[in-house]
Amino acid sequence: MSNTKQLKAGVLLSYLTLALSNIIALVYTPFMLRLMGQSEYGLYSLVASVVAYLTILDFGFGNAIVRYTAKYRAESREEEQSSLFGMFLAMYIGIGIIALIAGICLYLNVDLLFQQSMTLEELSKSKVMVLLMVFNVVLTFPLSIFPSIIVAYEKFVFHKLVNLARILIQPCIMIPLLLMGYKAIGMVVLTTVLNLGTLLVYCWYCFGRLHIQITFKGFDRPLLKEVTIYSFYVFLTIIVDRAFWSTGQFILGMLSGTKDVAIYSLVVQLCNYYMAFSLAISGVFLPKMTQLVTEGRSMTEISDLFIKIGRIQYIVMAYILLGFILFGKVFISYWAGDGYEMVYPLTVLIMIPQTIPLIQNLGISVLQAQNRQSFRSFLNVTVALISVFVGYELTKYWGIIGCAISTAGALLLGHGVILNWYYMKKIRLDIMKFWKQVFQITVPMLLAGGVTAISIYYHPMDSVLIIILNILLYSFFCGCFLWLLACNDYEKSLLRSPIQRFSHHKIF
Q: 254 lies in a domain?
């Protein structure tokens, strides 16, 4: 298969993998929650979030392997390529040893960290899971060069198919194991086996089909310096992600217990689904924004595109957010079951400020093209660290609500206030016009939500049929009010185009 066909098929498989992983998670999660129980699921989520901190030791080298392997292949520098693989393998073995030491320290301090909130049985299970997960992480580091090599060789189809197979296999094996009584520990064992099995398949493919060679000739210091600089901002992004979306479970595990961890894990999961919708939209328009900035177009033109795409993103995100506010409570009661009632208000609390960076994520490409991404990176790290310390204090007094408030407050401060100021004052994006446009869309959305809320008041959602009818009513009013009061010609054309194309195809 040619590289072009590999790329097209890879993109298609990427979207398929994303769709299937989200669908499977949505369907699989209710079974898992009910079969594991709240405490057991919370225990699993806690240990997973804690051990996940060891993965930051990757330092973003995976992206560097892809970049430099592709570069050496294009230049037919096979010897340098083999040395590159050897250097990264040696580095990853060293990182694996550091991870092992850190993991052992974590294992030895499980009692100290969680004795305040866990029973003796939970502490015992935690230790077993920590050992298994640390073992997984330690072996993952040296083996992780192989999927990066496969991507660099543009063998996207094989890479995505293996990943897709893993996504499909896990629930098919895990559900029977849960039915047989294997809970959190069984889940960790299966995850470890599947992860290492996947990486070994990648390893076989690299040696058996790509015929790569690995030689270690020492560390190339100039190259290592270049790689470190390249990977630094990726590393910062990883830290921020961990601080925002994993630290909450860790703090709750220390102060509140496994049940609160289970609740907060579902909040994070739903927020990640929400994020995926925005990234799917921005990914389509990202090349265009990068092109404009690279060509040195005026900031007026760049601002116009920023606002144009931001409006489309906001229409989609506002529809989802308001829909979740209206129907999220009943959805969670069906999806998660009893004991997860707090998931609804906490998710809404975080989703609202989370919307700001999700409708402005094209601004990242502007910062990158102007070589100003360092400000955003350091801002995110600073705000994330503040969130951790504030979150710990708030959780001591207000429990899980305080934990969510710290995350929501960090998002609002970092992205809603400081980054918007930077966009406006330093980048010269027309932020005031952006928010005026957002307000124009907000009004009809609130009208649609208000009308739907009245309908829900007079027709309580006590059956699946009424829920579906209310969702359809909400969608209808959103469409009508947006079309009449907010949508511009370009947005209307996006809706007309597929309808017109469909109408031109004759059925008979």
A: no
Query: Quick one: average pLDDT of 262-276?
Result: 91
For residue 299, give every residue at least 6 positions away whose Cβ sits within 8 Å of its Cβ, in sequence order, or none. 427, 428, 429
Domain that residue 109 falls in? 1-245
Q: pLDDT value at position 495?
A: 72
CB burial of 250-274 (b: ≥16 within 10 Å; e: otherwise) equals bbbbbbbbbbbbbbbbbbbbbbeeb
**Phi, psi of 215, rounded to the nearest 5 degrees:** -130, 140
Q: Count of residues for the chain?
A: 508
Nearest to 319 by CA among 112, 126, 195, 474: 474
State the Cα–Cα distance between residues 171 and 187, nearest whole angstrom. Answer: 10
User: For the chain, what is the domain count?
Assistant: 2
Question: Quick check: is 454 in a domain?
Answer: yes
pLDDT given for residue 11 in this prediction: 58
Say if 183 falls within a structural domain. Answer: yes
* Tens-digit pLDDT profile for residues 36-66: 888 888 888 888 888 877 877 777 787 788 8
pLDDT band at 436 (very low <50, low <70, confident <90, very high): very high
Residues 52 and 81 in one domain: yes
User: Are 198 and 311 members of one domain?
Assistant: no
| Neighbouring C-alpha atoms within 13 Å toward the C-beta of 209 | 13
- This prediction's pTM: 0.83
Together in a domain, 183 and 326: no
Q: DSSP code of 211?
A: -
